[in-house]
Each structure stands twice: as structure tokens, then as C-alpha cells.
Amino acid sequence: MQRTGVQGSERRKELGLFLRARRDQAVRAEYGLPPIARKRERGLRREEIAFLSGVSVTWYTWLEQGRDISPSRQVLESVCRSLHLSDTGLAYVLSLGGYATAAPSSPAAATAPAHVQRLMDALDPNPAFALFPDWGVAGWNTAYAALYPNIAKVPAPDRNLLWLVFTDPYVRDLLPDWDVTSKRFLAEFRAETGQRLGDPDIKYQVERLQEASPEFRAAWDRYDILGFESRERLFHHPAVGVLQLEHHQLSPSDRPDLHIVVYTPVPGSEASNQMQRLMSGPG
What we know:
By secondary structure, the protein is an alpha+beta fold. The chain has helices at about 1-25, 45-55, 55-65, 75-80, 85-95, 115-120, 140-145, 160-165, 170-175, 180-195, 200-210, 215-220, 270-280, and strands spanning about 130, 135-140, 230-235, 240-250, 260-265.
């Protein structure tokens, strides 16, 4: 019961900070409102959002303050519409407000189950890896190890996708669009883990990254969220050059807590041949 209470407090705090960030970043012209003093074109007042949402200023203020109140689904939906949030943003707010299925518990196992590992092995030569809810890397196949050789060398406690993206120089060099990709990963992570921010594993990862990476800290404070979308990715591997791969994600029906990430060649690219060369080793 104590843990549920802590998570509820963390969710209310996250909801308040998220709404405040979205309000501060709103473009006033999109609401037909003039700039605030000193030509400030972004940022809405609490009174303005409260009016647009059909709630009292006091009630909306309590939301942003993370007070222990129970806003209805209709109120949260109204606030989301007023802030012009996307469907992902709406789902995120509703989950923080308690209107979503409870997040799964952290898995007890330290690695992916055997049948999940066999599935990833069968996907060679397409790189694949599995993620736990805190984005810890649960397992990977030979192709992924060829694409990112450090994965087998990293100590288990540091084998977390966000940690690697923001702290491993090899990953930064591997991603030609690191600045964009790192922020997108963080926005997806936040969207996925909003309900679980009070979970010790999630809290640990966020706190250590805030200490280790100024880029993470700055991006985290923006409160951006994004839902996952399959998309083209670029990887600059020192041995074979730039690979064009499509990024996909799926979850086994019997292990919905796991996400399996798979990279497949972009049609018409040389990625398939490049992966074969990587997996064959030097020479």
C-alpha cells in the first residue's frame, strides 16, 4: 500500500509538471491571444487555460501543484483539448490521472526468457534486442552485437538503452542524428513510463542520468512525450559506413512487459549486404 501511495504522489507531481510545461510552451497566436509583455509569444496564464477548459482557476492550480485531488476523466480531457495535446499526450495525461490500465510489475528475471531469446536469434541477420519496462536491455542477437559491439562489454547495471544513448561515446558516433534520436527516445520513454515514475527502477535510471548527462537533464525538463512509430533510422558503423534500417517494435503476447526492437533493411538500400559483412567479421 505504501508503494502505491508513493507512485500516486509521483504521478500527481508528474501530471502537474507536465501540464505546466505544456502551458508554458503553448503558442499564444494559436489561441488568438496577443503576446504577453516583452513580446513573449509563448506561454498561457493559468486563468486562460482554466477558462478554456471550463474549470475554476483554483481547481486547475491544484492540478498543476500535484494536489491529492481526483479530477474526472472529462476534466482531464477538456484540459488536454485546451492545451492542444496529441492523442499520445491525452493518453499520457489520462494514465497519470488514473484512467488507464495499471502498468505491469517489473520482471524478476535479469535476462529475456529463453523463448524470447530464440525469437531474436531467429531474426539474424536483422539486429534485434529486448527491453524491460525501465528500458534495461534484456537480451540481443548476434546481428545487434555486430552493429553495437559494446553491448556485451557494458556492465549489467549500465545495460540500459537510455543510459547507453546518453553516456556511451560509441553510440553517439553510431547515430549521425544523435541530437534528434536521443530526444525522441527520451520522449518515448517518458510516454511509456509515466505511470511508473515512482517505481524504484525507473526513478533510479532518471536520477542517475540527470547527474551524468547535461543533455538528458535539459531534455527531461522539457516534458516532451511521443508515442512509438516505426521509422527509418541511420547508423554510421566504422566498418561498413552508413546503414539504412527501419526501426520496429513488438511485444510477445505472453510477455507484454517486454518490447522487442528489430531493425530491418530499408528497401533498396545496401543494409542487408552491410549486415552480412559485419556478421562475417574482419576479412
